[in-house]
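A quick word before the example. In earlier lectures we treated sequence and structure as two separate objects. From today on, think of them as two lines of the same record. Here is Penicillin-binding protein 2 written that way.
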Amino acid sequence: MSINRQSHRVRTSAKVLRAVLVIGLLILLARIFQLQIIEYETYTPLSMQNSLRMEVVNPARGLIYDKNGIILVENQPIYSITITPSRFNEEKIPHLSQLLQVEEDLVRERMNEAQQYSWHRTSRLFTEVSFETFSAIQENLWQLPGIGHQVESKRNYPTNVKASHVMGYLREATREEYLASEKILLGDKIGKSGLEMIYDDYLRGEVGTEYIRVNAFGQELGSYEDGMLDMAPKKGADLITTLDAEVQQLSEELMVNKRGGIVAMDPQTGGVLSMVSSPQYDLSKLAGRMDSEYWQQINQDPHTPLYNRAISSRQPPGSTFKPFMGLVGLELGLITPQTEIYNPGYYTRGRRYGDLADPGNYNLEDAITYSSNTYFFWIMDRIASRGMLDSWSELIKDFGIGPKNNIDLPYEVSGIVPDSTYMNEQFGDRYWGVGDLMSLGIGQGMVSASPLQMAVATSTIANGGYRVQPHVVSAIKDRSGEFQYTNPVFEKIEWLNPNQLENVKRGMRGVVSTGGGRYYANLDSIEVAGKTGTAQNPYGEDHGWFIAFAPMDNPQIAVAVLVENAGYGSISAAPIASLVIEKYLTRELNRQRVLDYVLDFRSKETQTAEVN
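And the structure line, produced from the sequence above:
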């Protein structure tokens, strides 16, 4: 009996054991089926982490061309070291530090930044390392799991054109910037000024990915599945600018050892032919790994080379304002082209306002040619005393003086064209009068503008009364070769009368042929029209201005030049503008005397600094 019971128990136990084994096997098979079939897409990438490395492949940044197809900005290869924090062993920091030839604390600091960004995504650890360092890291990757490398690029400038304030520079994106964008990765460089900043989304392109087989030591064994899973990067779009490289280079040379700005435009389209803010800075020292000593130097330079005087400065335009005053006087019905005003050598309105023009009668054309202050004081007197300040302000702004002109560059600043609201804010309600407005008539006092604004205003006279939107980029060329044109605004100023414009143009032509601009701005083969200006400066030597367009009968270029602390515009700014015009229209310079004069010219402030 006991033997039978014992045999029964053994058989029962065997059955239970077989059942447990079968159930366990079924569970295992079900789990394998779940992992291998049902959740294949979820777990296969995780299983591959031990044998695959995904590398981010950075796209080539778009190139920048001048209007004639000359490359102004291109790319040059550089080497970067990357880290995937989740795979990196911190005990390897001393070895990595030794290979990179940097302090351990710096490696640890960069690694912590990468960890904060993402534990599992690859980030740049160090950029623009030497080829020797890059090679040393490659040879030791088997000892440094989590460490990788990338071949990237930095900006290169193949011509002698600097255009630092136009092109701009790249810097590494801040933590706030890459957290706010899905397209920016840790260590990415983005545009921080100039075209690089405004068109960054176009220039940057899209990153690609590359899957690489690696062994247990992290050494590369080749691409995975012959690159079937790789995604090629998408090159950034190229920018086609309106700049003329030869004219830009000359403009830069003419402004060496001077402070100020040049803007040369096509008055028919608004395309910027050259733009210079002087002093400039060296973009090549800010490309790739930034020269921190140089960066500190230009930030502390009292001449503020990072400041774009061409579009951001506010200076009284002086007598270059007179052609626009004349057109407003005509529109307000205060004068006709034939109206003559006697100049005794001064204008009296409570006090005497000086006039350097010879005594005599002046109509509008002569008043512009010989720069009679009295004529324009007379107009401003009537504007102020008849309560026309707001109308005057609106009409002046129509030329592009005062408001921003929406150029495709950052940091453009509006000028100042006072109206009654502005005067009330500055002086208080009813605490200002005619005497506070008189100097506005000759471009002095509270009115102020940048070279860009004066170039836009000059273009409206040159092109027959159209306000053009200034722009540097004419087209964006994507990687497929398709062009996207920028289509800037071109707007008719309805109140401008063609006959009145011709009268003003003749006055500006007279400035260059017989007036103050005849010494340096007159060209034998080209009829240039212009206006000199000398703006009073309470902090030092006066500023020199000159605006011009040419040829007279079919204007193809309009120029505004400001030279700070340089005295009379006729001897400081006019020669510069005339050389820019000559170069653009004839493609050569035939006045060596004028070129030498400009290259040797120094502003009074620069001369003093050199002596001291």
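Notice the following. The first strand starts at residue 52 and ends at 57. We will return to this example when we discuss secondary structure assignment.
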